[in-house]
Amino acid sequence: MVSLASLRPLTPGYDSWYLLPFGRGSVQIQNNQPYSSSITIDPRYFSNPFDRLAQGATARFTRTVSDTIPLSGDITGETVPGSQLGMGADLEAWSSWAEGNYRSNWHPIGTVAMMSQSMGGVVDSRNRVVSRAVLSALVLVELSRTMI
Residue 2 CA to chain centroid, in angstroms? Predict the structure, then answer.
C-alpha cells in the first residue's frame, strides 16, 4: 500500500461532478439509416441555473476536503484550479470557473434503443436488457456494479 506521504510533494488537480443535474440534453438521429453514426448530441450542460451553482459548490468543496486533516498534512499544492481561484473565492467565482472548465464524466445514460439486439437494440432473445445505457438516472456508483 502506498501512503500519501511517500508521494510528496503532492499537488493534485481535481475532477469533481455534481451528479444529479436538473438540465436535460438530447440525442437526435439525423437520418433513417440504422447503423449510421449521424446523430446530434446536445448535453445542455448548465441549462438549469441551479446546476451551475451546484457544480461550483462541488468544486469548492473538493478544495475544502484537501485543506482538512488528514489530507492537509500531505497536500502541498493544487494544480487545478490552482492560482486561478484564490482561497477566499465566493460561490459565483467557483461557478464561473466550473462552467468554463467543465467536461463530461463519461457516463451517458438513456441513449440506446429498447429493441432486439439483432436490430441494433439492447434486448436479447430472452427479452432481457443487456446494456447499462438504458438507466434513466445516473447511478452514484461505478456502472459495472449495476450489472452484477
Answer: 27
